[in-house]
């Protein structure tokens, strides 16, 4: 939205986090608002932990439609909301705040956004086995989504074994039949021939780091996903060299955003416009 078209009737949505200056979400959502002719704008709020409560209180004012919440406040925001949906409550992570009447509600679109980003691969998940590398926020969302989608089981390999084990316990409590186990990254390589998919959810690769695992042992057709969207990581380059089906994290960013947009507006998100804004934003950042 151009500044000249901001009026007293404008509505606003935020992204709350720290840092947020690098976020591509403002470009994506503002392009979508413009496409649908909505007098709304979306803007980053870089806040500290003790500002989360006051900011949520401020969001109760009439012209605030909602917000996205990003690192590191996805868990901290939960206690300030009037209601949080059961899956988000269970994973302790809210990435979307929206209004229902005078209530502020929380949900997470990360898991469903991830599943939508898989396109036709999603249909193959039921009964499948996988390997998830990472146990941080993004990986937890993927783990919850995979369990909900009915996979048979997966291994979780993380640098901190305690965090992987804690995620395993959380998953087992809710999904009794899910075969989920924590393994060290070092011991994950021999498991690769037995899995149908591998999701890389750590931040390794964000700054050009080497792949956390060699993929040579993967069966033909094993789907390889890296949640990093900023660049083609070493992990994905390896998958490409081996001729494995693969995707980066831009689709997850797009679809979690589209779902948030639909919570706020009640309208279908203009996916193509949002995808274009993300790609343009990424390119501009590279220069
Ligand atoms: P996000 O929200 O992006 O998932 P996060 O919650 O901070 O961010 O999680 C980061 C993930 O990357 C974790 O799995 C982290 O491993 P630890 O739980 O052991 O910290 C992983 N990670 C970050 N830097 C890493 C490194 N140098 N080597 C291996 N794993 C790393």
SSE order in H/E notation? EHEHEEHEEHEHEHEEEHEHH
Strands across the major sheet, in which order? 2-1-3-5-6-4
Mean pLDDT: 96
- Shape estimate: globular
CATH class membership of the largest domain: Alpha Beta
Distance N to C terminus: 24 Å
Low-confidence region ranges: none
CATH superfamily caption of the largest domain: NAD(P)-binding Rossmann-like Domain
Structural class: alpha/beta
Rg over CA atoms: 19 Å
Reported CATH architecture of the largest domain: 3-Layer(aba) Sandwich
Beta strands, count: 12
Task: Walk me through this protein's architecture.
The chain has two domains: 11-108 and 251-286, Rossmann fold, CATH 3.40.50; 112-248, NAD(P)-binding Rossmann-like Domain (Rossmann fold). Helix 4 (110-117) crosses helix 8 (250-265) and helix 8 (250-265) packs across helix 9 (271-286). Helix content is 34%, strand content 20%. By secondary structure, it is α/β, with parallel strands linked by helices. It has nine helices and twelve strands. The model has no long low-confidence stretch (mean pLDDT 96). Strand 11 (223-226), helix 7 (234-241) and strand 12 (246-247) form a beta-alpha-beta unit. Bound molecules: 2'-monophosphoadenosine-5'-diphosphate (ATR). 2'-monophosphoadenosine-5'-diphosphate (ATR) is lined by residues 71, 134-139, 158-160, 163, 201-204.
Question: What key attributes describe this structure?
Answer:
287 residues; alpha/beta; Rossmann fold; 6-stranded mixed beta sheet; 6-stranded parallel beta sheet; 9 helices; 34% helix; globular; binds 2'-monophosphoadenosine-5'-diphosphate
């Amino acid at each position: 939205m151009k500044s000249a078209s901001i009026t007293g009737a404008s509505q606003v949505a935020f992204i709350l986090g720290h840092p947020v200056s690098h976020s591509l979400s403002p470009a994506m959502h503002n392009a979508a608002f413009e496409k649908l002719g909505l007098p709304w704008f979306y803007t980053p709020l870089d806040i500290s932990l003790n500002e989360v409560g006051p900011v949520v209180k401020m969001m109760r004012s009439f012209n605030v439609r909602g917000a996205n919440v990003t690192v590191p406040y996805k868990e901290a925001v939960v206690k300030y909301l009037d209601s949080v949906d059961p899956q988000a409550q269970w994973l302790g992570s809210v990435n979307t705040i929206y209004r229902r009447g005078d209530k502020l509600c929380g949900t997470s679109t990360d898991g469903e956004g991830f599943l939508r980003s898989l396109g036709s691969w999603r249909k193959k998940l039921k009964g499948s086995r996988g390997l998830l590398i990472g146990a941080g926020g993004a990986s937890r969302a993927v783990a919850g989504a995979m369990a909900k989608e009915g996979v048979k089981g997966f291994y979780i390999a993380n640098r901190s074994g305690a965090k992987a084990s804690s995620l395993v316990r959380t998953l087992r409590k809710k999904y009794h039949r899910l075969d989920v186990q924590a393994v060290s990254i070092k011991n994950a390589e021999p498991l690769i021939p037995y899995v149908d998919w591998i999701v890389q959810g750590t931040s390794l690769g964000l700054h050009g780091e080497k792949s956390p695992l060699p993929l040579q042992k993967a069966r033909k057709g094993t789907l390889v996903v890296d949640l990093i969207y900023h660049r083609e990581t070493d992990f994905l380059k390896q998958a490409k060299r081996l001729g494995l089906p693969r995707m980066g994290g831009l689709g997850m960013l797009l679809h979690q955003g589209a779902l948030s947009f639909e919570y706020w507006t009640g309208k279908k998100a203009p996916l193509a416009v949002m995808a274009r804004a993300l790609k343009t934003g990424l390119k501009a950042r590279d220069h």
